[in-house]
Amino acid sequence: MGVLPSLQLLRISRVLSPLSSEFLAQYPFEHVQIFMQLRALAVDARPEVRNCAVKSLSTALLSHGRKVGTACYQRCLADVLIKVVAEIQTKPARSLPKGATGSKSDGLIVHHSRDTPEKQWDETLVLAMEGVRRVLSHFSEEAGTAAFAPLAYTMLLQIQETIRALSAETAGSALRALVDLMRIPASSQTFEVNGGFVTDPALPIGASSTSIWLLGWSVLWSMVNFCRTRELPESLVETCGT
Fold it and tell me: Which residues form the Mon2 C-terminal domain (predicted)?
């Protein structure tokens, strides 16, 4: 397997953040170059392309992540796979496209087809979140809690945001991902919340030390309060009952 040509790397860098481009320069491994190319394809406008890229990216990280070392593996999770989830969540194409047809009811446009761009992006989001959960579990087996916790915390934020969207396509999957994340052995281990740990007001940490397991319960409790006065998608109700 040869190193990717410079022209290909240039094309990749155009769709990546400056931080990710710096990452590619810092870790010029063949595997990292492949991860970055898959990361670009994971937000492609074509659903079949991005779904395949998301699954391939997760599989590649599971197979080769340890070969690049713990520090690089951590950066791959943070700057590649987890960033993919964030981009999918905020993708403008997930909104209703121009020219879409549907019936209007109380000011809302109701789709009769399940094969809409928004639902296709939801499918990609489900695949990406499951991929992050699997790779995080794999990463935690060799990394310490200090390396695992910031990544898992970011994942908790993304799970919380996905559940709050109350999408019939993604809410149940996000809740399952939360439960699976809390079951990872490293999630029950306490870590120190020092100055280098970046927190978010959406999921505050009030103590100097905590665990992902405890923070997961915070997400669950906030979800209960959030959903109390809202109509829930059936997929979320079914997941809560299992």
Answer: 32-189
Decide: pTM greater than 0.90: no
pLDDT, block means (10 residues), the chain with 242 residues: 41 47 58 83 93 93 86 88 90 50 42 72 94 94 91 95 87 92 95 86 91 96 86 73 60
Amino acid at the residue 225: N
Q: What is the DSSP string of 149-186?
A: HHHHHHHHHHHHHHHHTT-TTTHHHHHHHHHHHHHSGG
Q: What is the dihedral of CA 139, 144, 205, 183, to 10 degrees?
A: 50
The crossing angle, in degrees rounded to 10, of helices 18-26 and 6-14 is: 150
* CA 91 – CA 228 distance, rounded (Å): 28
User: Residue by residue, what is the 3-state secondary structure of 29-41?
Assistant: CHHHHHHHHHHHH
